[in-house]
Amino acid sequence: MRVVLIAANWKMHKTVAETLDFARALAPLVRDVSDVEIAIAPPFTALAALGAALRGSRVALAAQNAHFEAKGAFTGEISVAMLADVGCTYVILGHSERRALFGETDAFIARKLRAVQAAGLRPILCVGESLAEREAGRTFGVLRAQLEGSLAEAEAARAAELVVAYEPVWAIGTGKTATPELAQEAHAFVRARLADRFGASAQSIRIQYGGSVKPENAAELMAQPDIDGALVGGASLDPLGFSAIIRFRERRAGVSG
Ligand code: PGA
Hints:
Layout: E1 4-9, H1 16-30, E2 36-41, H2 44-54, E3 59-63, H3 80-85, E4 88-93, H4 96-101, H5 106-118, E5 122-127, H6 131-135, H7 139-150, E6 163-166, H8 180-198, E7 206-210, H9 215-222, E8 229-232, H10 239-246, H11 248-256
Parallel strand pairs: 1-2, 1-8, 2-3, 3-4, 4-5, 5-6, 6-7, 7-8
Helix pairs in contact: 1-2, 1-10, 5-7, 7-8, 9-10, 9-11
The structure holds 2-phosphoglycolic acid.
2-phosphoglycolic acid binds next to β8.
C-alpha cells in the first residue's frame, strides 16, 4: 500500500517568521491525521528554523533544489549534506520552473538525483509537459524522455524511496487542473515507465499530481488508482487551505454521503 504524500512547495514565499507562524497554525489542524504523510518545502533560508520546529512532529522537511557537488566553489548552491544537516527528508528536483527559467536539463537533474539518493535523502522528481507539447500530441514522448533522462543515474536499490510528481506545466499556478481522468492516464504511463526501469519496485513509488491542486479538487484526484498524493504550490501557503487538502478524505466521505 502506498501512503499518500501531500507536499507543500512554497517556491519563493515566506520569511522565517512567516514560516514559523505557518508551522504553529498547521500543527493543531493535522494532529489527528495519521494516514497521510505531510512535507513542507520552504525557501532555503527557512529550512533550518522549520527543521527545528518540526522535530518530533509528523511533518517532514523538504528542500526545493540541491546541487550534486559535495562542496567547493559553487557560489549560490547548496549541497545535499547541508540539507541533511538541517533535517531534510525530501528534495524536490527538476521542477518545471527550474527547467524553464534556469535551464536545468535532464542530465543535470540526473546528477542531482544520484547525489540526493547517495545522501540517504528522497528525491521528488518533477516531470510534465507544456501546453504546446500536449497540443502537439507529444505528452507521452516528453514524459518518457524526462523520466529516462532524469533517472539515468538513479540507484535501483533505492527506487522504492523515489517520489515522482507529474505536473503538467499548463496547470501550474494557472487555476487549470488536469481532469482526474487525464491525470490518471499520465500517472499510469509514468508508472509503466518506472516499471520498465525498476521492475516491481515501481508499485511502491509514490506518483504525486501537481498543478492547481486545491481543497475542492484534491479528493477526486486522489481517488484515482495511480495518484498517490499532491505537490501543492499556491494553495499550500495558507495553513487552512493546506490542511483541507491533507484532510481530503473527509471531503470525499462528505460528498458520497
Ligand atoms: P500550484 O503549483 O499548486 O500553484 O499550481 C504546483 C507546483 O508548481 O508544484
